[in-house]
Amino acid sequence: MPLNILILGGTGFTGPEQVEYALARGHKVTLFNRNRTRPDFFKGKVDQLIGDLNSDVSALAGKTFDVVLDNPTTLPAWVRNAAQHLKGNIGHYIFISTLSVYPDNSRPNMDETDGTTPMPADVDPYTLVRENAARYYGAMKSFSEQEAERHYPGKVTIVRPGLIVGPLDRSDRFTYWPVRINAGGNVLAPGTPDDPAQWIDARDLAEWMIRLAEQKVLGTFNAVGPTLPMQELLYGCKAVTTAGAQFTWVPADFLATHGVRPWRHMPVWVPNSKEYAGFSTRNNARAVKAGLTFRPLAVTAEDTLAWHKTRPEAEQKATAEGTIAGIAPAKEAEVLAAWKAKLATGGTNND
């Protein structure tokens, strides 16, 4: 049955995929945003309400919806602000949270019952200071989940993705790899080939959320893909290129010594240490049971690379230079040379 769907945001990364999928399945879509990111992106296809969750939400007054998809909220005040008009006027509230609500990443295969990050006692949970959204990200998201439950009891679905990847992602936290591998040559590969990695394609996440809305599935879900070894990620990206890249695996300790940071310089990857043993191994069984599916890595890598080639030249250059995420070519060459020299003087892959 067609739904009347309100999407908060809707023009960034995951939002456009939600819109396209919802429209294809016959639903009516309304967007509420500032109309600044890709202005009028879906003009003529959706209803547009202009406002700001940080301040002016008056455009929501008097409106009713079957379901709300809350994509952008990082501050609990945004949930409270929207609820001024949405409370009592919606049937289902789906909130995109994050795996960052979990403070403990030390144990593999942890599920949704794991404890979440509390709000620090000296921090106002309803602050509108944007810096706090980053500084207390996990706590703010945790409190936002609770805020949603307070305003819409019995109507809330909490979706906790980790690393979201695919076309339209300008964070380069995955995009770096297919772009770098497509450039060919000797590629710095972090840690060991078996180090775990975990992500989800934005399209899989978006489409699943629309299906959750259609079926009115409630509850809390870790929205992540299966755990795969880093070598599968890198060789999977290589499989959709013809550049003939080669990989040199460099141990985590050596990378740290040379200032190469996990996640920032080596996207997707964190060391498989005791502290991070559960970081890329979150249990997704509950989400899979609720219908979450995953497209092949090759599809994600190929589509991401194809989209990247359509980006403005400045953005493509920034990705190639590791400006946002990834390692600069000169630094990569420097670390690879240092590792080669170490091996030449008797070092081993276990050093």
What does this structure look like?
The chain is of the alpha/beta class and 351 residues long. It has 2 domains: 158 residues, Rossmann fold; 122 residues, no CATH class. Helices cover 34% and strands 15% of the residues. The protein has a 7-stranded parallel sheet with strand order 3-2-1-4-5-6-11, sandwiched between helices. The chain is globular and about 75 Å long. The mean pLDDT is 96.
CATH architecture type of the largest domain: 3-Layer(aba) Sandwich
SS field, number of helical segments: 12
The proportion of strand residues reads 5-15%
- Binned, the helix content reads 25-40%
Q: What are the SSEs and their pairings?
A:
Blueprint: E1 4-8, H1 14-24, E2 28-33, E3 47-50, E4 67-70, H2 76-86, E5 93-96, H3 130-135, H4 137-151, E6 156-161, E7 164-165, H5 176-182, E8 186-190, E9 196-197, E10 200-201, H6 202-215, E11 219-223, E12 228-229, H7 230-238, E13 246-250, H8 252-257, H9 285-289, H10 297-308, H11 313-320, H12 329-344
Parallel strand pairs: 1-2, 1-4, 2-3, 4-5, 5-6, 6-11, 7-10, 8-13
Antiparallel strand pairs: 9-12
